[in-house]
Amino acid sequence: MQLEQAVFTSAQTKRSRGYHLVARSPGISDRLAEMLGRWGPTHGSLLEKDVHTCCYSFFPTLDGSLAVARTVYGGPEYSGRGGLQIVTFILTLQLDDLSGYRFDVLSLARTALGLGYLRVTDKLTGALSPVEIPRDAPLAFEQRQLPDPGADVERVISLLERRQRLAVLGVDDPTTLMQHILANMSRDQRAQVSFTTGLRPSSHRTFQLNLYPSSNDTLARHFRSVGIETLECGALT
Amino acid sequence: MNTTSQFLESVKYFSQQLVTCLCCGNQHPAEGDRCTNCQAPMELSRTMGPKDSPPEFITVLGASGAGKSVYLGVLLDLLSNGVKGLKGFANGAFSIAVQQNTMAALEQRHFPQKTPSEADLWNWVHCQLAHESRPKRVYDFVTPDMAGEAIAQEIHQSGTYPAIYNVTQQSKGILLLCDSQRVCQASVDEDLLGLTMLSYVFALHDDGSKKSQREVSIAVVFTKTDLCPEARDDPAQFAVNNVPRMVQFCKNHRGRHKFFATSVVGSSALMIDEMGCETQIAFHVEPRGVVEPLDWIIRGT
């Protein structure tokens, strides 16, 4: 099946400079491109400073469509102010596209990654082609093969079922925890929960579930001020 | 008399008190952090709300990399010490952050990091200014330190960033920053970009009357002129030579306009670290022409 893709990062292009949607496939409409441009994570959006940091996000876009994004550090930021650019690779999809992946968006993302998408390449800007990925997941991961999530997954799921927005702080491996959460949810629930495994909180990006490796008072205070319940990962073991 | 129930009633009263956002006019609970519409800090509205005279919004616009954050930070630092008869004090912790971040970076011979596009991460400046010739006339200088990409998005689709829309609409003065080096290298692109920003400003101020056009003063400020002597020596002629469309547009409108040149460092160089990251290094801080645009705007209000 074909999925549309886009790249959001800081670059100097004919269209703009700084953080903007630098590349997209033809199926990304102007309206969707504007929405992704407003959503896109900019400077400082990855809370972890490790250059190997990788963060997944999943969120609804327009008219019932969905998006899965992988955010990483890229090359040097072009403007001479130091630091690395933050690069976000986005795939847009419909709910039906997830059926072959048991509605596990991380399984779809892993497949795309294995096929060479969602990765930093030498050409980030310009026109892109749609992504071709198998309709059904080529590999099925058993939950028991996953590392220990380090948190009470059932408790997180029960809070999510109450439609409560939630932030879990101090998670050793947010992606692994998210894999466990998805594996323990019903199929109907999986595609209903928007999440991020490490993007800085912002009113431009509202996720139901926020997982962070770091834990500090500032982060906790911010979440509480916008009505998001915070939990320390240690309290969930 | 039941003092506990009275206390609870008073708490309920205060917790229901609403504050009107100074930027967009939305009403919010008094204890909120930021306006949920425009992301302006509620502290700004709480401290300025009760006054009789409305604040003087002065908007700093410019493309990504034009030098808005550096300009604002150095400006605040100069004003806090008093310069050319102007003295000002940053009001509020959110305001001091702009000055602090810039001066701390320059002390380390770096420039501050890129401003994020997310409006809820912007620092805002609120500075109370007075000129020694008119000490009783106090100006509240208010502006967000905005990301250039956000400004570009707002211009492309008005209303994307309510803070930019509302502050620009209410501003009596606009500081439009243009990177003089980029103007030299890609003058047509920079001219058209500047023209787009000017068009946006005047569209927000134009109610069809001649008076509305006169009400906004535009200071076009060429930045980084330590690297562009042509701009530094005669900014007006530099503008005529390199950004003629902007010059003509300003002339066609009845509002005040003037071209300025500014720089904050005496000299700088490009450093490349072991990861290939390019960083501009400031050898020494030597502000030139930083206060003049603001002084000119204030004198016209």
Could you explain how this protein is built, in words?
The complex is a heterodimer of chains A (237) and B (301). Chain A has 237 residues and is of the alpha/beta class. Chain A is built from 6 helices and 11 strands. In chain A, a hairpin with a 7-residue loop joins β4 and β5. In chain A, α3 crosses α4. The longest helix of chain A is centred in the C-terminal third of the chain and has 11 residues. The N and C termini of chain B lie far apart (55 Å). Chain B is 43% helix and 26% strand. In chain B, α3 crosses α4 and α8 packs parallel to α12. Chain B is α/β, with parallel strands linked by helices and 301 residues long. Chain B has a 7-stranded mixed β-sheet, with helices on both faces. Classes of the chains: A alpha/beta (237), B alpha/beta (301).
Brief write-up:
The complex is a heterodimer of chains A (237) and B (301). Chain A is α/β, with parallel strands linked by helices. Chain A has 6 helices and 11 strands.
Order of helices and strands of chain A: EEHEEEHEEHEHHEEHE
- Helicity of chain A, in percent? 10-25%
Mean pLDDT of chain B: 88
Shape of chain A: globular
Query: CA-to-CA gap between the ends of chain A?
Result: 40 Å
Instruction: Count every helix of chain A, treating DSSP H or I runs of 4 or more residues as helices.
Output: 6
Give the largest interface pair and sizes.
Answer: A-B, 30 and 35 residues
Q: Which word captures the global form of chain B?
A: globular
Structural class by sheet pairing and helices of chain B:
alpha/beta
- Strand fraction band of chain B? 25-35%
Strand order of the largest sheet of chain B: 4-5-6-3-7-8-9
Low-confidence stretches of chain B: 10-14
Total strands of chain B: the figure is 11
Q: What oligomeric state is this?
A: heterodimer
Give the helix/strand class of chain A.
Answer: alpha/beta
Mean model confidence by pLDDT of chain A: 90
